Amino acid sequence: MSAPATDQRAYNFSAGPAVLPVSVLEEVRDEMLCLPGARTSLLEMSHRDKAFVDILHDAENSIRSLLKISDDYSVMFLQGGAALQFSMIPANLLRGTDKSAAYLQTGTWGKKAIGEAKKEGKVNVVYDASSSNFNHVPTASDYEVASDAAYLYYCSNETIQGVQFHDEPKCPESVPLICDASSDFMHRPLDISKYGMVYACAQKNAGPAGVTVVIMRKDLLEIGSESLPGYMQYKLHAENDSEWNTPPTFAIWVLGKVARWLSDDIGGLDAMEKINREKASLLYDAIDGSNGFYTGHAKPDCRSLMNATFVLPNDELQASFLSEAAGNGLVALKGHRSVGGIRASIYNAMPLEGAKALADFMTSFAAKNG
Ligand SMILES: *Cc1c(COP(=O)(O)O)cnc(C)c1O
């Protein structure tokens, strides 16, 4: 007989789709053929079936209570990934106005969002970190936002560069702040009341591919024009409880289980943040303690708690690092081609032991090859 699947699992540092909690995968396996009490699989069930509608509401309520989201905000489950939000945001909030939208460009995903926004209206890139190959985020004195801007958009964690905002960027009170939190959603508590909108595709830190969570202040729902394609109108999704059309039922089911795991097993977002900080310090300590063998990409005060990016002295060492790591059960560590080197994604579901195993491997690899 082959080994049980859980014994065959490596520590998976993929940037996304990415690691999920084993207990969630086990639950999904156990309930796959027949959802408890429902007599069919969730995959075979109408999205209007009460059993699924309850699952959708439970997922929403778990997210609301983890992030303490008030009734001033709608929570929607959409498709089209984060990429569709790059277009939906300016289509609703910028198109047809004489305003301009402010963007902070601190990495690849922000840059893509800017490209899509330019198709919809006036865009003002108020800060651009591209000349330093996106290794930092701005401080409050580095940029200005006009008080009549349509919104200020930023990406809280640039997944490819491993650069993260550790606080909200400065934003005039009159301007809605919009955040792409795809790769650090629910990694720590967040004060949603500071935002006009926060969104995240699930497949990095919150669930499987297929669903994007959109948290939007209700007054902003009214701005989008009714001449937009129906799917592009936030208002329709909000009014119809994310069932304007068939939502991604499987992805919402798993997302809801991950949210329940965060509250019941981890103990909420304060506890999650503590673990995430511990995991990240293990890796950054291994970089900083390597006498220059590893070089981090991000400036130390902008280092991501979710994606640690670093390079080795040369390509040969990098290749042997990746193959030896895989031999030690540490996989999916190859960095994105635009940064090169290694990227270790240590999302919520990566256990502390996984980060510890990688840090130990890094230290011994540097000692052997340095
Ligand atoms: C992965 C990612 C995206 C793109 O997500 P899709 O669902 O593939 O469109 C956007 N923003 C960030 C921060 C990401 O990590």
Fold and architecture overview:
There is one protein chain. With 370 residues, the chain is α/β, with parallel strands linked by helices. Helices cover 36% and strands 15% of the residues. The chain has 11 helices and 14 strands. It has a 7-stranded mixed sheet with strand order 2-10-9-8-5-3-4. A hairpin with a 4-residue loop joins β6 and β7 (163-164). The N and C termini lie far apart (42 Å). Pyridoxal-5'-phosphate is lined by residues 16, 81-83, 109, 155, 159, 180, 182-183, 201, 204.
List keywords for this structure.
alpha/beta; Aspartate Aminotransferase, domain 1; globular; three-stranded antiparallel sheet; 370 residues; binds pyridoxal-5'-phosphate
The CATH superfamily of the largest domain is known as: Type I PLP-dependent aspartate aminotransferase-like (Major domain)
First-last Cα distance: 42 Å
> Strands of the largest sheet, in order across it?
2-10-9-8-5-3-4
What number of structural domains do the residues give?
Answer: 2
Class by SSE composition = alpha/beta
Rounded mean pLDDT score: 97
> Per CATH, what is the topology of the largest domain?
Aspartate Aminotransferase, domain 2
Shape: globular
Strand content: 15-25%
Number of strands: 14
CATH class term of the largest domain = Alpha Beta
Helix content: 25-40%
Bound ions, cofactors and other small molecules, one mention each: pyridoxal-5'-phosphate
The second-level CATH architecture of the largest domain is: 3-Layer(aba) Sandwich
- Oligomer description: single chain
In angstroms, what is the radius of gyration?
21 Å
Low-confidence parts lasting 5 or more residues at pLDDT below 50? none
Instruction: Report the total helices.
Output: 11
